[in-house]
């Protein structure tokens, strides 16, 4: 399934990009007046291979949940059980992601790819467990390559299911206590950046824990220095949710359904997806830039410009959800706004 998905991903279509750019310039506004929104609409046209691109709605958020062996190193102030407790909260509709999803009209699906407990079946929960938490990445590989493939394929199958159910925009979400440590390790490895520059405070660690966290990321990079392929790097340093989110992004791109990326966890996962299939970036929109320092590094490597910066540092898909109305507005311009010709508005003399 992974190989077939990667084979189906195509880079942006040059003709659709050119058509979308010239359409933007014929609309009743000064050329470029919609700034970054024009780039978003053009980008989605290239990815969809048609201009104007289809409206990116309805949107579906998938929150991939998993636990992390590296939690044992003391990198997060929160107990590991918070992962499963937050899954219950998502399913009950009580998290910030639920409030934002309701605000923008997105569906919410929670996917257990590796929570360290057996979760009771519930509506809105998909169980695609690869393990009960990863191994400690500061001591060796977090998972085997076979587990990484299983998690990637779990993400692909969630993308396929949501698209088959009608989603025309996918939004990434995550839940996993200690996953900002794995994110920092992935970003350092995939971008060749020093651990100190990409390791942040996650849920809000103090100075001494932040220093420890940087040392743990360094140890993880040393312990896994043998990982040299995209898959082995993802397996060595990632969490099950990172691998599943990477698969979810690949699955959206293969189906030409745009993917709005959330924060630093999504950014780290997107680096893995991009290493497996570089064209995948043409299908992604960076919803926001989070306060985690590694996020900007990941987005720069992917060539993606974040739509908003609200200093969010939550995850769950919250930043991706908030960007969805902006992406819809950008595309709606292409569908609804009159051209100079059609509206009888005089163009600027050239
Ligand atoms: C109550 C609560 C709700 C959350 N929702 C998302 N996260 C976020 O924080 C975690 C990563 O931060 P760290 O690496 O510092 O543990 C992830 O689970 C992420 O989704 C939460 C964290 C907590 C505590
Ligand atoms: O920026 C993020 O995406 C983030 C920050 C802290 C915890 N979880 C996610």
Automatic annotation (TrEMBL):
Active site: 316 (proton acceptor)
Catalysed reaction equations from the record: 5,6-dimethylbenzimidazole + nicotinate beta-D-ribonucleotide = alpha-ribazole 5'-phosphate + nicotinate + H(+)
A Gene Ontology biological process term: cobalamin biosynthetic process
Domain of life: Bacteria
UniProt KW keywords: Cobalamin biosynthesis, Glycosyltransferase, Transferase
Gene3D superfamilies membership: 1.10.1610.10, 3.40.50.10210
Record keyword Glycosyltransferase present: yes
Pfam families with a match to the protein in the record: DBI_PRT
UniProt entry tagged with the keyword Transferase: yes
UniProt pathway annotation: Nucleoside biosynthesis; alpha-ribazole biosynthesis; alpha-ribazole from 5,6-dimethylbenzimidazole: step 1/2
Family to which the UniProt record says this protein belongs: Belongs to the CobT family.
Described function: Catalyzes the synthesis of alpha-ribazole-5'-phosphate from nicotinate mononucleotide (NAMN) and 5,6-dimethylbenzimidazole (DMB).
NCBIfam families recorded: cobT_DBIPRT, PRK00105.1
Name of the molecule in the record: Nicotinate-nucleotide--dimethylbenzimidazole phosphoribosyltransferase
Species annotation: Nonomuraea endophytica
